[in-house]
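Look over this today:
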Amino acid sequence: MSDQQLLQIIQNSFVGKDTVYPTVNGKSSPRRYLDSAASTLMMAPAFEVTKLFLQHYASTHSKLHYAARGASEAFDWAHQTVLRFVGADTGKYSCYFSGSGATAGFNRISSEFSAQRPERNIVLVSEMEHHSNDLPHRAHSEVVHIPAMGEGPAYGGLDIEVVRALIEKHGEKINYIAVTGASNVTGALTPIHQIAQLAHSVGAYLLVDASQMIAHAPVSMKSDSLENADIDVLIFSGHKIYAPGSPGAVIAHSSLLENMAPCELGGGMVTDVYLEQYMMSEVLPDREEAGTPNIVGAITLGAVLEVLMRIGMDTIREKEIHLIDMLWEKLSAIDGVNLYGPAPGDVPRTGTMTFNLKGFDHGLTAAALNDFHNIQVRNGCFCAHPYVREMLKRELWEMDIDPNALNAEADIERKRGMARASLGLYTGEDDLLALIEAIKDLIARKDEIHSIYHPVGSNGYQHNHYSPDLASIFNPLVALEKALEGSN
Protein backbone atom coordinates (compact mmCIF):
# COMPACT_ATOMS: atom_id res chain seq x y z
CA MET A 1 0.00 0.00 0.00
CA SER A 2 1.38 3.42 -0.93
CA ASP A 3 1.69 6.25 1.58
CA GLN A 4 -1.06 8.17 -0.27
CA GLN A 5 -3.42 5.19 -0.09
CA LEU A 6 -2.75 4.76 3.62
CA LEU A 7 -3.23 8.48 4.18
CA GLN A 8 -6.62 8.36 2.48
CA ILE A 9 -7.71 5.41 4.62
CA ILE A 10 -6.54 7.00 7.88
CA GLN A 11 -8.11 10.39 7.09
CA ASN A 12 -11.51 8.75 7.36
CA SER A 13 -10.67 6.62 10.40
CA PHE A 14 -11.18 8.86 13.43
CA VAL A 15 -13.54 8.29 16.31
CA GLY A 16 -16.22 11.00 16.48
CA LYS A 17 -15.37 12.68 13.18
CA ASP A 18 -18.97 12.50 11.97
CA THR A 19 -20.82 12.80 15.28
CA VAL A 20 -24.22 14.40 14.66
CA TYR A 21 -25.36 17.49 16.60
CA PRO A 22 -28.51 19.64 16.40
CA THR A 23 -28.55 23.14 14.88
CA VAL A 24 -30.68 26.24 15.37
CA ASN A 25 -32.98 25.38 12.45
CA GLY A 26 -34.17 22.22 14.20
CA LYS A 27 -32.18 19.92 11.98
CA SER A 28 -29.12 17.80 12.74
CA SER A 29 -25.87 17.29 10.84
CA PRO A 30 -22.39 15.84 11.31
CA ARG A 31 -20.02 18.25 12.96
CA ARG A 32 -16.98 19.81 11.33
CA TYR A 33 -14.26 19.61 13.96
CA LEU A 34 -11.81 22.49 13.58
CA ASP A 35 -10.44 22.53 17.13
CA SER A 36 -7.46 20.21 16.70
CA ALA A 37 -4.95 22.65 18.20
CA ALA A 38 -6.73 22.19 21.52
CA SER A 39 -7.05 18.42 21.22
CA THR A 40 -7.25 16.04 18.31
CA LEU A 41 -9.73 13.27 17.70
CA MET A 42 -8.77 9.65 18.37
CA MET A 43 -7.21 7.70 15.51
CA ALA A 44 -9.44 4.61 15.20
CA PRO A 45 -6.76 2.00 14.32
CA ALA A 46 -4.71 3.08 17.34
CA PHE A 47 -7.82 2.84 19.51
CA GLU A 48 -8.34 -0.71 18.23
CA VAL A 49 -4.78 -1.57 19.27
CA THR A 50 -5.58 -0.25 22.73
CA LYS A 51 -8.73 -2.34 23.01
CA LEU A 52 -6.81 -5.46 21.97
CA PHE A 53 -4.13 -4.71 24.54
CA LEU A 54 -6.77 -4.44 27.27
CA GLN A 55 -7.59 -8.11 26.70
CA HIS A 56 -4.06 -8.79 27.96
CA TYR A 57 -3.83 -5.93 30.44
CA ALA A 58 -1.52 -6.14 33.44
CA SER A 59 0.86 -3.75 35.13
CA THR A 60 4.49 -3.49 34.11
CA HIS A 61 7.65 -4.24 36.16
CA SER A 62 7.18 -7.99 36.17
CA LYS A 63 7.94 -10.65 33.57
CA LEU A 64 6.90 -13.81 35.32
CA HIS A 65 3.40 -14.10 33.88
CA TYR A 66 2.42 -13.66 30.27
CA ALA A 67 0.30 -10.52 30.63
CA ALA A 68 2.82 -8.61 32.75
CA ARG A 69 5.62 -9.57 30.39
CA GLY A 70 3.54 -8.43 27.42
CA ALA A 71 2.63 -5.13 29.12
CA SER A 72 6.27 -4.43 29.97
CA GLU A 73 7.41 -5.11 26.42
CA ALA A 74 4.56 -3.07 24.91
CA PHE A 75 5.34 -0.14 27.23
CA ASP A 76 9.00 -0.30 26.23
CA TRP A 77 7.93 -0.42 22.56
CA ALA A 78 5.98 2.83 23.09
CA HIS A 79 9.12 4.56 24.39
CA GLN A 80 11.20 3.30 21.48
CA THR A 81 8.54 4.35 18.98
CA VAL A 82 8.58 7.91 20.30
CA LEU A 83 12.35 8.02 19.90
CA ARG A 84 12.14 6.67 16.34
CA PHE A 85 9.42 9.18 15.44
CA VAL A 86 11.62 12.16 16.34
CA GLY A 87 14.81 10.66 14.91
CA ALA A 88 16.49 10.33 18.30
CA ASP A 89 19.61 8.18 18.56
CA THR A 90 18.81 5.66 21.29
CA GLY A 91 22.45 5.71 22.32
CA LYS A 92 22.19 9.42 23.14
CA TYR A 93 18.55 10.11 23.98
CA SER A 94 15.95 8.73 26.35
CA CYS A 95 12.18 9.17 26.46
CA TYR A 96 9.88 9.13 29.44
CA PHE A 97 6.14 9.67 29.82
CA SER A 98 4.82 12.32 32.16
CA GLY A 99 1.48 13.70 33.32
CA SER A 100 -1.53 14.16 31.06
CA GLY A 101 0.22 16.44 28.57
CA ALA A 102 3.33 18.55 28.10
CA THR A 103 2.93 20.75 31.20
CA ALA A 104 4.44 18.29 33.69
CA GLY A 105 7.51 17.94 31.50
CA PHE A 106 8.09 21.68 31.29
CA ASN A 107 7.80 22.07 35.05
CA ARG A 108 10.20 19.19 35.65
CA ILE A 109 12.86 20.35 33.21
CA SER A 110 12.72 24.03 34.19
CA SER A 111 13.09 23.19 37.87
CA GLU A 112 16.02 20.84 37.35
CA PHE A 113 17.88 23.00 34.85
CA SER A 114 17.74 25.98 37.22
CA ALA A 115 18.92 23.86 40.15
CA GLN A 116 21.83 22.37 38.22
CA ARG A 117 23.28 25.64 36.94
CA PRO A 118 22.22 28.45 39.33
CA GLU A 119 25.03 30.66 38.04
CA ARG A 120 23.23 30.69 34.67
CA ASN A 121 20.11 32.46 35.85
CA ILE A 122 18.69 33.68 32.51
CA VAL A 123 16.27 31.80 30.27
CA LEU A 124 15.26 33.11 26.86
CA VAL A 125 11.59 32.38 26.09
CA SER A 126 9.79 33.43 22.93
CA GLU A 127 6.76 35.71 23.17
CA MET A 128 4.72 33.18 21.19
CA GLU A 129 4.71 30.52 23.92
CA HIS A 130 1.77 28.69 25.40
CA HIS A 131 1.63 29.40 29.14
CA SER A 132 2.90 25.88 29.87
CA ASN A 133 6.23 26.76 28.20
CA ASP A 134 6.46 30.19 29.78
CA LEU A 135 5.23 30.21 33.37
CA PRO A 136 7.36 27.29 34.66
CA HIS A 137 10.52 29.11 33.58
CA ARG A 138 9.40 32.31 35.32
CA ALA A 139 9.06 30.37 38.57
CA HIS A 140 12.71 29.32 38.62
CA SER A 141 14.74 31.78 36.54
CA GLU A 142 14.94 35.29 35.18
CA VAL A 143 13.04 35.14 31.88
CA VAL A 144 13.94 37.37 28.96
CA HIS A 145 11.28 37.20 26.27
CA ILE A 146 12.28 36.97 22.61
CA PRO A 147 10.09 39.26 20.48
CA ALA A 148 8.58 37.90 17.28
CA MET A 149 8.87 39.42 13.82
CA GLY A 150 6.58 42.03 12.33
CA GLU A 151 3.93 44.01 14.14
CA GLY A 152 0.20 44.26 14.63
CA PRO A 153 -1.92 41.44 13.19
CA ALA A 154 1.08 39.98 11.30
CA TYR A 155 3.19 39.59 14.45
CA GLY A 156 4.76 36.13 14.57
CA GLY A 157 7.72 33.92 13.81
CA LEU A 158 11.23 34.29 15.23
CA ASP A 159 14.02 36.28 13.62
CA ILE A 160 17.33 34.44 13.99
CA GLU A 161 19.21 37.72 14.14
CA VAL A 162 17.10 38.88 17.11
CA VAL A 163 17.86 35.62 18.90
CA ARG A 164 21.55 36.00 18.04
CA ALA A 165 21.63 39.53 19.49
CA LEU A 166 20.07 38.38 22.77
CA ILE A 167 22.55 35.53 23.03
CA GLU A 168 25.45 37.90 22.42
CA LYS A 169 24.06 40.23 25.08
CA HIS A 170 23.56 37.66 27.84
CA GLY A 171 26.18 35.09 26.82
CA GLU A 172 27.01 32.42 29.38
CA LYS A 173 24.41 33.72 31.81
CA ILE A 174 21.86 31.91 29.64
CA ASN A 175 20.95 28.51 31.01
CA TYR A 176 18.63 27.47 28.20
CA ILE A 177 16.29 28.75 25.50
CA ALA A 178 12.63 27.65 25.41
CA VAL A 179 10.72 27.97 22.14
CA THR A 180 7.67 26.50 20.51
CA GLY A 181 8.15 24.41 17.40
CA ALA A 182 4.93 25.93 16.07
CA SER A 183 2.67 28.56 17.61
CA ASN A 184 -0.69 27.38 18.92
CA VAL A 185 -2.12 30.77 17.91
CA THR A 186 -0.86 31.24 14.35
CA GLY A 187 0.90 27.99 13.50
CA ALA A 188 4.12 29.91 12.73
CA LEU A 189 7.00 27.43 12.58
CA THR A 190 10.27 28.08 14.41
CA PRO A 191 13.74 27.32 12.92
CA ILE A 192 14.60 25.17 15.93
CA HIS A 193 17.93 23.78 14.73
CA GLN A 194 19.31 27.22 13.93
CA ILE A 195 18.35 28.34 17.42
CA ALA A 196 19.91 25.19 18.89
CA GLN A 197 23.20 26.01 17.19
CA LEU A 198 23.14 29.55 18.61
CA ALA A 199 22.27 28.27 22.09
CA HIS A 200 25.10 25.76 22.07
CA SER A 201 27.61 28.46 21.08
CA VAL A 202 27.39 29.79 24.66
CA GLY A 203 26.84 26.45 26.38
CA ALA A 204 23.07 26.87 26.71
CA TYR A 205 20.48 24.16 26.08
CA LEU A 206 17.48 24.27 23.78
CA LEU A 207 14.07 23.16 25.03
CA VAL A 208 11.41 22.77 22.32
CA ASP A 209 7.66 22.60 22.84
CA ALA A 210 6.65 20.37 19.92
CA SER A 211 3.00 20.01 20.94
CA GLN A 212 1.69 22.01 17.97
CA MET A 213 4.34 20.85 15.54
CA ILE A 214 4.41 17.13 16.19
CA ALA A 215 1.29 16.17 14.19
CA HIS A 216 1.89 18.54 11.29
CA ALA A 217 5.52 18.55 10.19
CA PRO A 218 8.60 16.32 10.33
CA VAL A 219 10.47 16.64 13.64
CA SER A 220 14.02 15.44 14.26
CA MET A 221 16.24 15.77 17.29
CA LYS A 222 19.24 15.79 14.95
CA SER A 223 20.13 18.36 12.33
CA ASP A 224 21.43 16.94 9.07
CA SER A 225 22.73 20.26 7.75
CA LEU A 226 24.02 22.21 10.77
CA GLU A 227 26.83 21.33 13.16
CA ASN A 228 26.20 21.28 16.91
CA ALA A 229 22.50 21.90 16.33
CA ASP A 230 20.80 18.87 17.86
CA ILE A 231 17.82 19.48 20.16
CA ASP A 232 18.55 18.94 23.85
CA VAL A 233 15.01 18.48 25.14
CA LEU A 234 11.76 18.10 23.20
CA ILE A 235 8.35 17.77 24.83
CA PHE A 236 4.92 17.13 23.36
CA SER A 237 1.40 16.09 24.33
CA GLY A 238 -0.10 12.86 23.03
CA HIS A 239 -3.58 14.36 22.90
CA LYS A 240 -2.34 16.78 20.23
CA ILE A 241 -1.42 13.90 17.93
CA TYR A 242 -4.54 11.74 17.72
CA ALA A 243 -4.12 9.88 21.04
CA PRO A 244 -6.51 11.43 23.62
CA GLY A 245 -5.86 10.03 27.08
CA SER A 246 -2.17 9.43 26.45
CA PRO A 247 0.58 11.04 28.55
CA GLY A 248 3.04 13.75 27.66
CA ALA A 249 6.37 12.66 26.21
CA VAL A 250 9.77 14.07 27.17
CA ILE A 251 12.75 13.29 24.93
CA ALA A 252 16.12 14.45 26.26
CA HIS A 253 19.81 13.72 26.14
CA SER A 254 20.29 10.80 28.51
CA SER A 255 23.22 12.59 30.13
CA LEU A 256 20.92 15.44 31.17
CA LEU A 257 18.35 13.10 32.70
CA GLU A 258 21.03 11.08 34.50
CA ASN A 259 22.14 14.24 36.31
CA MET A 260 18.63 14.91 37.60
CA ALA A 261 17.38 13.56 40.89
CA PRO A 262 13.93 12.00 40.40
CA CYS A 263 11.19 14.45 41.38
CA GLU A 264 8.66 11.76 42.25
CA LEU A 265 9.41 8.84 44.55
CA GLY A 266 7.56 5.56 44.69
CA GLY A 267 7.37 2.14 43.18
CA GLY A 268 9.21 1.40 39.97
CA MET A 269 11.99 3.98 40.34
CA VAL A 270 13.96 2.19 43.07
CA THR A 271 16.08 -0.96 43.09
CA ASP A 272 15.69 -1.65 46.81
CA VAL A 273 14.18 -0.10 49.93
CA TYR A 274 15.11 -0.53 53.60
CA LEU A 275 13.74 1.18 56.69
CA GLU A 276 16.90 3.25 56.87
CA GLN A 277 17.47 4.04 53.19
CA TYR A 278 16.47 3.37 49.58
CA MET A 279 18.42 2.94 46.36
CA MET A 280 17.17 4.78 43.28
CA SER A 281 17.29 3.06 39.93
CA GLU A 282 19.96 4.19 37.53
CA VAL A 283 17.92 2.90 34.59
CA LEU A 284 16.13 5.31 32.26
CA PRO A 285 13.24 5.82 31.86
CA ASP A 286 12.34 3.84 35.03
CA ARG A 287 13.74 6.47 37.41
CA GLU A 288 11.49 9.12 35.84
CA GLU A 289 8.27 7.08 35.90
CA ALA A 290 7.40 6.42 39.54
CA GLY A 291 4.18 4.52 40.20
CA THR A 292 2.00 2.57 37.83
CA PRO A 293 2.39 4.26 34.44
CA ASN A 294 -0.29 5.14 31.92
CA ILE A 295 0.43 1.99 29.93
CA VAL A 296 -2.78 2.15 27.91
CA GLY A 297 -2.22 5.77 26.85
CA ALA A 298 1.41 5.15 25.97
CA ILE A 299 0.53 2.18 23.75
CA THR A 300 -2.18 4.22 22.03
CA LEU A 301 0.37 6.97 21.35
CA GLY A 302 2.89 4.45 20.05
CA ALA A 303 0.33 3.02 17.65
CA VAL A 304 -0.50 6.49 16.31
CA LEU A 305 3.15 7.33 15.75
CA GLU A 306 3.73 4.03 13.96
CA VAL A 307 0.86 4.81 11.55
CA LEU A 308 2.16 8.31 10.90
CA MET A 309 5.66 7.00 10.19
CA ARG A 310 4.23 4.58 7.66
CA ILE A 311 2.41 7.43 5.91
CA GLY A 312 5.41 9.74 6.21
CA MET A 313 5.31 13.15 7.85
CA ASP A 314 6.52 14.76 4.62
CA THR A 315 3.38 13.42 2.91
CA ILE A 316 1.19 14.75 5.71
CA ARG A 317 2.91 18.13 5.61
CA GLU A 318 2.42 18.41 1.84
CA LYS A 319 -1.30 17.72 2.18
CA GLU A 320 -1.69 20.33 4.89
CA ILE A 321 0.25 23.06 3.10
CA HIS A 322 -2.33 22.96 0.30
CA LEU A 323 -5.16 23.43 2.81
CA ILE A 324 -3.35 26.24 4.65
CA ASP A 325 -2.73 28.19 1.45
CA MET A 326 -6.31 27.72 0.30
CA LEU A 327 -7.83 28.82 3.60
CA TRP A 328 -5.58 31.87 3.93
CA GLU A 329 -6.30 32.97 0.35
CA LYS A 330 -10.06 32.60 0.63
CA LEU A 331 -10.37 34.19 4.09
CA SER A 332 -8.16 37.11 3.01
CA ALA A 333 -10.58 37.80 0.15
CA ILE A 334 -13.59 38.24 2.46
CA ASP A 335 -14.34 41.82 3.44
CA GLY A 336 -14.86 41.88 7.19
CA VAL A 337 -12.36 39.16 8.16
CA ASN A 338 -9.22 40.04 10.12
CA LEU A 339 -6.51 37.38 9.92
CA TYR A 340 -3.62 37.10 12.38
CA GLY A 341 -0.03 36.03 12.16
CA PRO A 342 2.38 36.15 9.24
CA ALA A 343 1.17 35.04 5.82
CA PRO A 344 2.12 31.46 4.90
CA GLY A 345 4.33 32.83 2.14
CA ASP A 346 6.34 34.85 4.67
CA VAL A 347 6.68 32.33 7.50
CA PRO A 348 5.91 28.61 7.17
CA ARG A 349 2.86 27.66 9.21
CA THR A 350 0.95 24.65 10.42
CA GLY A 351 -2.81 24.37 9.99
CA THR A 352 -3.81 26.82 12.70
CA MET A 353 -5.55 30.04 11.68
CA THR A 354 -6.89 32.76 13.93
CA PHE A 355 -9.34 35.42 12.83
CA ASN A 356 -11.98 37.87 13.91
CA LEU A 357 -15.07 39.13 12.09
CA LYS A 358 -15.55 42.88 12.15
CA GLY A 359 -18.43 43.75 14.44
CA PHE A 360 -18.32 40.35 16.20
CA ASP A 361 -16.74 39.48 19.51
CA HIS A 362 -14.72 36.29 19.22
CA GLY A 363 -17.14 34.40 21.46
CA LEU A 364 -20.10 35.39 19.30
CA THR A 365 -18.30 34.12 16.19
CA ALA A 366 -17.58 30.75 17.79
CA ALA A 367 -21.10 30.37 19.19
CA ALA A 368 -22.85 31.24 15.92
CA LEU A 369 -20.59 28.96 13.86
CA ASN A 370 -21.50 26.13 16.19
CA ASP A 371 -25.23 26.82 16.51
CA PHE A 372 -26.02 27.57 12.87
CA HIS A 373 -23.40 25.58 10.97
CA ASN A 374 -22.16 22.83 13.31
CA ILE A 375 -18.60 24.07 12.89
CA GLN A 376 -16.54 23.70 16.05
CA VAL A 377 -13.78 26.28 16.57
CA ARG A 378 -12.13 27.65 19.69
CA ASN A 379 -12.08 31.25 20.88
CA GLY A 380 -10.20 33.33 23.42
CA CYS A 381 -6.46 33.81 23.94
CA PHE A 382 -5.54 30.11 23.78
CA CYS A 383 -3.31 30.16 26.88
CA ALA A 384 -0.99 32.57 25.04
CA HIS A 385 -2.35 35.87 26.37
CA PRO A 386 0.64 38.19 25.78
CA TYR A 387 1.06 37.03 22.19
CA VAL A 388 -2.62 37.40 21.33
CA ARG A 389 -2.88 40.84 22.89
CA GLU A 390 0.19 42.05 21.01
CA MET A 391 -1.45 41.13 17.69
CA LEU A 392 -4.73 42.76 18.74
CA LYS A 393 -3.12 45.93 20.07
CA ARG A 394 -4.07 48.24 17.20
CA GLU A 395 -7.67 47.05 17.08
CA LEU A 396 -8.07 47.41 20.83
CA TRP A 397 -6.57 50.89 20.81
CA GLU A 398 -9.11 51.88 18.16
CA MET A 399 -11.82 50.73 20.61
CA ASP A 400 -10.12 52.76 23.40
CA ILE A 401 -9.14 49.55 25.19
CA ASP A 402 -5.77 48.99 26.85
CA PRO A 403 -4.68 45.57 25.54
CA ASN A 404 -2.66 44.89 28.69
CA ALA A 405 -5.08 46.26 31.29
CA LEU A 406 -5.05 44.09 34.40
CA ASN A 407 -8.32 42.75 35.83
CA ALA A 408 -10.27 43.93 32.79
CA GLU A 409 -14.05 43.81 32.95
CA ALA A 410 -16.00 41.10 31.14
CA ASP A 411 -17.02 43.32 28.22
CA ILE A 412 -13.34 44.08 27.54
CA GLU A 413 -12.31 40.43 27.80
CA ARG A 414 -14.92 39.58 25.18
CA LYS A 415 -12.90 41.69 22.74
CA ARG A 416 -9.40 40.62 23.79
CA GLY A 417 -9.36 37.38 21.86
CA MET A 418 -9.83 35.63 18.54
CA ALA A 419 -11.56 32.68 16.94
CA ARG A 420 -9.28 29.82 15.92
CA ALA A 421 -9.79 27.16 13.26
CA SER A 422 -7.23 24.38 13.47
CA LEU A 423 -6.75 21.45 11.15
CA GLY A 424 -6.14 17.77 11.72
CA LEU A 425 -5.38 14.80 9.53
CA TYR A 426 -9.14 14.35 9.11
CA THR A 427 -9.71 17.88 7.81
CA GLY A 428 -10.61 18.13 4.14
CA GLU A 429 -11.26 20.88 1.62
CA ASP A 430 -14.99 20.43 2.20
CA ASP A 431 -14.58 21.37 5.87
CA LEU A 432 -12.72 24.56 5.02
CA LEU A 433 -15.09 25.55 2.24
CA ALA A 434 -17.96 25.06 4.70
CA LEU A 435 -16.16 27.35 7.17
CA ILE A 436 -15.68 30.01 4.50
CA GLU A 437 -19.35 29.94 3.49
CA ALA A 438 -20.43 30.01 7.14
CA ILE A 439 -18.29 33.07 7.81
CA LYS A 440 -19.80 34.83 4.81
CA ASP A 441 -23.25 33.93 6.14
CA LEU A 442 -22.55 35.41 9.59
CA ILE A 443 -21.17 38.63 8.12
CA ALA A 444 -24.22 39.01 5.89
CA ARG A 445 -26.53 38.50 8.90
CA LYS A 446 -24.54 40.52 11.43
CA ASP A 447 -27.46 42.56 12.77
CA GLU A 448 -29.69 39.52 13.05
CA ILE A 449 -27.00 37.50 14.84
CA HIS A 450 -26.45 40.31 17.34
CA SER A 451 -30.16 40.56 18.04
CA ILE A 452 -30.57 36.88 18.99
CA TYR A 453 -27.50 36.38 21.22
CA HIS A 454 -26.56 37.71 24.64
CA PRO A 455 -23.14 37.68 26.32
CA VAL A 456 -22.35 35.14 29.03
CA GLY A 457 -19.31 35.46 31.27
CA SER A 458 -16.09 36.98 30.00
CA ASN A 459 -15.88 35.36 26.55
CA GLY A 460 -19.10 33.46 25.86
CA TYR A 461 -22.38 34.07 24.05
CA GLN A 462 -25.71 32.26 24.24
CA HIS A 463 -28.60 32.21 21.76
CA ASN A 464 -31.70 33.86 23.24
CA HIS A 465 -34.00 30.96 22.42
CA TYR A 466 -31.90 27.99 21.31
CA SER A 467 -30.37 26.02 24.15
CA PRO A 468 -30.15 22.27 23.54
CA ASP A 469 -29.98 19.99 26.53
CA LEU A 470 -26.35 18.93 26.67
CA ALA A 471 -27.30 15.88 28.72
CA SER A 472 -29.28 14.66 25.72
CA ILE A 473 -26.14 14.91 23.58
CA PHE A 474 -23.90 13.01 25.97
CA ASN A 475 -24.59 11.97 29.53
CA PRO A 476 -22.07 9.59 31.13
CA LEU A 477 -24.73 7.97 33.33
CA VAL A 478 -27.06 7.38 30.38
CA ALA A 479 -24.13 5.98 28.41
CA LEU A 480 -23.33 3.69 31.31
CA GLU A 481 -26.90 2.43 31.49
CA LYS A 482 -26.86 1.65 27.76
CA ALA A 483 -23.58 -0.18 28.17
CA LEU A 484 -24.96 -2.21 31.07
CA GLU A 485 -28.08 -3.08 29.07
CA GLY A 486 -25.92 -4.16 26.16
CA SER A 487 -23.87 -6.45 28.37
CA ASN A 488 -26.97 -8.40 29.57
